[in-house]
Design a protein that fits this description.
Length: 336
């Protein structure tokens, strides 16, 4: 293994550890807090967490094995199963992010009608579509033997070693990425940009009210006035930063891999093997980023994590004090 392969192997290990711990933490918060379970976005987050966890334990370790050994991990049948899972889970996770963006759009643009437009049965219907959509592409690819070990990515994924079906594979690949990556990206852009527009409109209204109040309060201290103006600026930047994070992480993690898969369809264009692994690592890194982007950095999840930690620390302190009490009782001399 050269230096680049060693660095990539370490990167895969780090991604596996972070993804496993962060997604398990999201799952624990979901099970611990009944308020999170009652909310409709919690179902989408649960589905996304399930896909990320399964991808972490099934595909990432085998990519690490393929990268280290430079050989296919397991037999052809086993690799086809893993490739089926990779296609299904990556598609399902992209569509889950699109579903979360639609949920946010309805909540912000139609706040008074949100509970009638997005109920639990509506969320179940959307999740049913994401599963059917993901299952259809995965089943077609597996049934046509377009899933196998790909040396460029050191992974069991979409691959076509037969030259006889190259045209059909090219059509399928373009169609697949158009209705997974491109569709999800368009939905994210349309919904989140509309959310940003509404957020900026509300920020302007709040700014107008704030400025009118500051004008009326002529005796207000200059430092208080300055803090109000700084809060206005932070409020405007907060919405833009969140929307940029949602769309930016999606593009940064998925776009290089999808573009590489499209470029790969042209045999005359050479692709560096290290770049193939890098693009695959970027897609895996999305599973490690999602828990923070969609869950753990939100106030509700932070509070839940804090409650869990306090409960564990309280229980451990009670157990420690109980053991000390027992030890003191055993050390007392007994009466003759």
């Amino acid at each position: 293994m050269d230096t680049a392969e060693v660095i990539l192997s370490v990167l895969v290990v780090v991604i596996i550890i972070v993804s496993l711990l962060s997604n398990i933490l999201v799952l624990i918060c979901f099970l611990y807090n009944p308020e999170i379970r009652k909310q409709v976005p919690g179902l989408f987050n649960l589905n996304l967490t399930f896909c990320n966890l399964l991808l972490t334990v099934s595909n990432m370790p085998l990519t690490l094995v393929g990268l280290v050994s430079k050989a296919q991990p397991g037999g052809d049948g086993f690799c086809q199963i893993v490739g089926f899972l990779e296609t299904f889970l990556s598609t399902n996770s992209m569509l889950s992010m699109a579903a979360l963006s639609i949920d946010r759009w309805i909540a912000v643009v139609f706040p008074l009608r949100y509970h009638s437009k997005m109920r639990h049965k509506d969320a179940a219907f959307v999740l049913g579509y994401t599963w059917a959509h993901s299952m259809s592409f995965s089943t077609v690819a597996t049934s046509l033997s377009w899933v196998g070990y790909h040396r460029l990515y050191a992974s069991c994924t979409l691959s076509n070693p037969r030259a006889s079906s190259r045209t059909q594979f090219v059509i399928f690949t373009v169609f697949f990425h158009s209705f997974t990556f491109l569709l999800s990206f368009v939905v994210l852009c349309v919904t989140y940009l509309k959310v940003l527009k509404v957020a900026r409109f509300h920020c302007k209204r709040i700014d107008v009210i704030t400025m009118q109040t500051l004008v009326l309060l002529v005796d207000i201290h200059p430092s208080v006035r300055q803090r109000c103006l700084e809060e206005q600026k932070r409020r405007r930047q907060r919405a833009t930063r969140k929307i940029s994070t949602f769309i930016g992480t999606f593009m940064l993690c998925f776009a290089p891999y999808v573009i590489t898969r499209i470029v790969e369809l042209f045999p005359a264009v050479p692709i560096n093997p290290h770049w193939g692994i890098v693009s695959k690592c970027l897609t895996y890194s999305k599973a490690a980023c999602d828990p923070f982007v969609y869950s753990l950095l939100r106030h509700q999840y932070k509070k839940t994590c804090t409650d869990i930690m306090n409960r564990l620390l309280k229980r451990s302190s009670l157990n420690a004090s109980g053991r000390r009490h027992d030890n003191q009782g055993n050390s007392l001399p007994t009466a003759e």
